[in-house]
Amino acid sequence: MAITHQFVLDFLHVRQAGEAEKLEPFLDDNVDWLISGPVDFLPHCGHRKGKAAVIDMVCRIAPDTFEARNFEIKHLLVQGNYAATMSRFHATHTATKRTISYRSAHFMRFRSDRLIWFRGLIDSLSATEQFMGHELDLEHTPDVISIAPDGDLIEV
Amino acid sequence: MTNPVSPAVVQAFYQAYATRDAARMESLVVDHVRWTIIGPSQVLPFCGEHHGKAAVLKLFTEIFPGIIQFRSFEPEVLLIDGDRAAAYLKLTGYLHKSSRIITYHCGQFIRFENDKVVCYSSIIDSFDAAEQALGHYIDPMHEPVPAAIDPQKAVVEL
Fold it and tell me: Which residues of A touch B139 (CB under 8 A)?
C-alpha cells in the first residue's frame, strides 16, 4: 500500500519529537539510516543499521546535541513507497547554546508502512562551521600524524 | 499548486541535465528560473544562486565545463509528485584545476510550471565534497587567524 503525505508528516513529527515509543512503529527492524557528514563533529551524522540504533540516534543522540529542533519543510514529495523532503533545520546547539540553521534533504523508502531506508544530505560544511563557531580554513592542510616516528618499523 | 508535471517532461529534463545539453535545457526552463546549488562555492564555484534563464544556460555552457567534466550520473531515486520532482543521485566528475576525480551524492528538488522548471534546488554533503576537491582533510579545530591590518596602509573613513 502506498504511503500518504500525512503519513510522512506524522513520521517527521514523531522524529522531531524524539519519543521512542511513538517512533518505534514507524521503523522496520532492518532500517538502514545514513546522514552524510563529518561524524566526529556532527554526532547525529553517520550510518545506523537496525531499529535500536536508529531509535538511539533519533531519541538520544540528536536531542543531546540539539535543543528546540524544528524542520521547516520547503518540499515534500511522495510517490509509491518513497518520500523526499527538503527542509531548513533550526535548533539550538546544546553544548554552546548557539543557534544552528542549515539546509537538509531526506530521501525515504517505506515497506509495509515502516521506514526501511533513509538517506539524509545536509549542508555539512555550513553545519560544521556553526557548530565550531568559526569559519573553516579550507587552505589549511592538517599535519599528517606519523605513525612511525624516528624511522621505526611497523610490522604488518 | 499548478498543473502536474508529466513523467515525459521530467525525463526530458534529466536527459538534458545529464548530457549538459544547454540547447535542450533552454526550452525546459522559464525566463525567471531560480537555480540554487547548495554547496562549497569556495572550492566548487558552480555552487550558489543562479537567477534567470541566461544565468542557468551560462552554467551549462561555460561554468560547468570550465570547472568539472561530469563522468557519470547515476539516479538512485526519482519521485514525481504534482508539480514537483525530486532525485537522489550519485555524480562523479573530473575537476580540471586540480586533476582530481570527485564523487558525491546529490539531492535535487525541482518545481515545474506548465512543464517548465521555475525552481531548482540541490544539496550535497558539502564537507565531504570540499575535502575531495581540495585533496586534503579539513580540520574543523583549526581556527583561521584574522588577517593582520597594516597600520601604514589602513585608512579609516569616518
Answer: 137, 140, 142
Range of the domain at B35: 7-134
Instruction: Write out chain B residues lying below 8 Å of A140, CB-based.
Output: 138-139, 142, 144
Please name which of B73, B75, B68 lies closest in space to residue B91, comparing C-alpha atoms.
B73
Q: Which of B6, B10, B126 is the best residue to mutate to test the A interface, defined by the most A CB atoms within 10 Å of its own CB?
A: B126
User: Among A8, A44, A71, A75, which would you mutate to test the B interface (most chain B Cβ atoms within 10 Å of its Cβ)?
Assistant: A75
pLDDT in tens, B92-119: 999 999 999 999 999 999 999 999 999 9
Sorted by where each begins, the domain ranges of chain A are 5-133
Sequence-distant (6+) residues with CB within 8 A of B120 are B33, B34, B35, B36, B108, B109, B110, B111
The verdict on B61 touching A (C-beta cutoff 8 Å) is no
When divided into structural domains, chain B yields a total of: 1
CATH placement of domain A5-133: 3.10.450.50
Per-residue pLDDT reduced to its tens digit, A33-78: 999 999 999 999 999 999 999 999 999 999 999 998 899 999 999 9
Rounded Cα gap, residues A100 and A66, in angstroms: 9
CATH of the domain at B56: 3.10.450.50
| A1-5, A103-107, B88-92: segment of lowest average pLDDT | A1-5
* B6 close to B115: Cβ distance less than 8 angstroms: yes
Q: Of A131, A138, A44, give the one whose Cα is nearest residue B131.
A: A138
Q: Which of residues 59-88 of A touch B (CB under 8 A)?
A: 74-75, 77-79, 82-84, 86
ipTM: 0.90
Whole-model pTM: value is: 0.91
Is residue B157 included in any domain, yes or no? no
HSE on the CB side for B74, CA within 13 Å? 10
Which residues of A fall within a CB distance of 8 Å from B146? none
